[in-house]
């Protein structure tokens, strides 16, 4: 079979203006970036009438589950059934693209294109977010250097620089050395973890963007009070100018010409893991079905989509799809990677409870219709597929095996039919926690209800910060738990459906602009490093201008 990049390069793309017409958009609604990409302006009278489908997954494994691939194949499948569909996906980060994880444009014959553009600079959104982030940092350090009228405590500057690349050497740095400013310790985050990314993705319009930018907490002053970005002269307006174009969602297409809006890219293990509210609004306003996804497992991206994004945006999904594979479930059941192609009903049966926990969460906690999309592998045996279908049925859901990687939208038609039927089931979403509860209670609710843990332990530092945040009026914000993506717990080694565990929160942060509390559980890197052999070693540009080695 051809590689992903070979399939993408051989595809005959439609003019983006023709793709836009499928969404009833005219050329006046587009800001063209060449022939196959555009930013869109949503008509002011647009109404969000589409059925909203959230695609999530089990906790990721070494075999890969294919959440984005399924989302794309599902949208193409719905389009093949005669309904208008529009995707709303996250933008890839250059860090994973040149690191180990890879891109985020789907795979096989279920891809969004132009794939190389999307995975690389795209329309410059990531760079704009990076620039706005670092502009605020520059203004803060300049303010300190020029006399520090706000009396910012240089030992308590909370807002950090960022870049859209994995760079271990920048995790901890010293700025202002040798008299070139006021010397202090600092560090870099990856752009996907920047609060500016979260702000852009949660902002409902320009006015809300500026409000959120202004509420970013820069740090503490010498009296122990928060210093906000709006306290720094010129910060809000100048950041907003840099983000003006980046606020507009990007329109591309699938290999089959289905419209795809790709905008914003926060990671789900360290941030809230959802594409922008603007992108979701657009998809819901322009098609019959809006298909969106949330990062990593349902305990991370889906929980944050449902408990945070849905509250902010005033939306809720009509159906939730959980993506899994037989191979991944066998890994959660203790199978070895080198034996995954062999039938192993014992490991599969031990791994299926992991999937069932995610089903229970969507069905019983959030009260939403839920389906399972099983990405089919040629090595899946009839006994294995039958076991999955049986166990999922016993849990009150339906498992649909898909072939979107090999067959595109045709391989997603069965899933599309099941999703369209599920979207007609009346439902009213509930949340995992009450916003009015204290920060500790909200974190405990997520751990106990969603992860299946016994409870939460907090470091003394975390306890002190929680009291401080609540005293300062931030206690009613949603909570974002930053933890490993590989387990329902905060321990990556506890695969399957662990029980009897407690989650340890070592630190908490308040993101006043984004409007949530971040609880740091386990070892989470806000700036990843590169591996021994990163993907960058295989990526090259030929003499005739062709990109090679990119997936």
SSE order and pairing:
Layout: H1 4-10, H2 16-21, E1 30-32, E2 38-40, E3 51-57, H3 67-80, E4 85-89, H4 94-98, E5 106-107, E6 110-113, H5 115-119, H6 125-145, E7 152-157, E8 161-163, E9 173-175, E10 184-186, E11 188-190, H7 195-202, H8 206-214, E12 217-221, E13 226-228, H9 235-243, E14 250-254, E15 259-262, H10 277-286, E16 289-293, H11 298-313, E17 319-324, H12 326-332, H13 345-365, E18 370-375, H14 382-394, E19 398-402, H15 404-407, H16 413-422, H17 439-451, E20 455-458, H18 460-471, E21 479-482, E22 502-511, E23 516-521, E24 540-541, E25 547-548
Parallel strand pairs: 3-16, 3-17, 4-15, 4-16, 8-11, 17-18, 18-19, 20-22, 21-23
Antiparallel strand pairs: 1-2, 2-14, 5-6, 6-14, 7-12, 9-10, 12-13, 14-15, 22-23, 24-25
Helix pairs in contact: 3-16, 6-7, 6-9, 8-9, 12-13, 13-14
Report on the structure:
By secondary structure, the protein is α/β, with parallel strands linked by helices. It has 18 helices and 25 strands. It folds into 3 domains: 4-122 and 246-422, P-loop containing nucleotide triphosphate hydrolases (Rossmann fold); 125-241, 2-Layer Sandwich (Domain 2, N(10)-formyltetrahydrofolate synthetase); 439-521, Formyltetrahydrofolate synthetase, domain 3 (Roll). Strands 1, 2, 3, 4, 5, 6, 14, 15, 16, 17, 18 and 19 form a 12-stranded mixed sheet that branches. A 4-stranded mixed sheet has the order 20-22-23-21. The radius of gyration is 23 Å and the shape is globular. The model has no long low-confidence stretch (mean pLDDT 94).
């Amino acid at each position: 079979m051809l590689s992903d990049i070979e399939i993408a390069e051989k595809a005959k793309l439609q003019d983006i203006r023709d793709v836009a017409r499928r969404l009833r958009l005219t050329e006046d609604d587009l800001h063209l970036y060449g022939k196959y990409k555009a930013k869109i302006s949503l008509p002011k009278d647009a109404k969000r009438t589409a059925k909203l489908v959230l695609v999530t997954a089990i906790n990721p494994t070494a075999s890969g589950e294919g959440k984005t691939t399924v989302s794309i194949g599902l949208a193409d499948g719905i389009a093949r059934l005669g309904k208008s569909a529009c995707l709303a996906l996250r933008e890839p980060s250059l860090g994973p693209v040149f690191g180990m994880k890879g891109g985020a444009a789907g795979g096989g014959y279920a891809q969004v294109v132009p794939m190389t553009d999307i995975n690389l600079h795209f329309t410059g959104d990531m760079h704009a977010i990076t620039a706005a982030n670092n502009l605020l940092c520059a203004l803060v350090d300049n303010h300190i250097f020029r006399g520090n009228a706000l009396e910012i405590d240089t030992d308590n500057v909370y807002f950090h620089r960022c870049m859209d690349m994995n760079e271990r050497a920048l995790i901890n740095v010293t700025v202002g050395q040798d008299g070139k400013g006021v010397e202090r310790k600092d560090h870099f985050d990856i752009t996907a973890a920047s609060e500016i990314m979260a702000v852009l993705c949660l902002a409902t319009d320009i006015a809300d963007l500026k409000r959120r930018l202004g509420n970013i907490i820069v740090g503490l002053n010498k009296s122990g009070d928060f210093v906000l970005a709006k306290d720094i002269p010129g910060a809000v307006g100048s950041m907003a100018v840099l983000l003006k174009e980046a606020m507009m969602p990007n329109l591309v297409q699938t290999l089959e010409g289905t419209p795809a809006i790709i905008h914003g890219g926060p990671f789900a293990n360290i941030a809230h893991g959802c594409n922008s509210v603007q992108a979701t609004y657009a998809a819901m306003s322009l098609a019959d079905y809006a298909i969106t996804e949330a990062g990593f497992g349902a305990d991370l991206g889906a929980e944050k989509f449902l408990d945070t994004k849905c509250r902010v945006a005033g939306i809720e999904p009509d159906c939730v799809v959980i993506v899994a594979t037989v191979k991944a479930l066998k890994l959660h059941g203790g199978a070895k990677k080198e034996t995954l192609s062999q039938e192993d009903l014992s490991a599969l049966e031990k791994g299926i409870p992991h999937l069932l926990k995610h089903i229970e969460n969507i069905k019983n906690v959030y009260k939403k219709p839920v389906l399972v999309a099983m990405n089919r592998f040629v090595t899946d045996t009839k006994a294995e597929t039958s076991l999955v279908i049986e166990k999922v049925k016993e849990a009150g859901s339906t498992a649909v095996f898909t072939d979107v990687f090999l067959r595109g939208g045709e391989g997603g038609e069965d899933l599309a039919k099941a999703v369209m039927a599920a979207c007609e089931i009346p439902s009213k979403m509930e949340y995992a926690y009450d916003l009015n509860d204290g920060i500790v209670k909200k974190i405990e609710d997520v751990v106990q209800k969603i992860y299946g843990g016994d409870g939460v332990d907090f470091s003394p530092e975390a306890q002190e910060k929680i009291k401080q945040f609540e005293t300062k009026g931030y206690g009613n914000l949603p909570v974002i738990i930053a933890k490993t993506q590989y387990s329902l717990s905060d321990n990556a080694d506890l695969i399957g459906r662990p029980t009897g565990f407690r989650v340890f929160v070592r630190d908490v942060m308040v993101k006043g602009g984004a409007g949530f509390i971040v609880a740091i559980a386990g070892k989470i890197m806000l700036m990843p490093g590169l591996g021994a052999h990163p993907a960058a070693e295989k990526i090259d540009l030929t003499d005739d201008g062709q990109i090679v080695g990119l997936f």
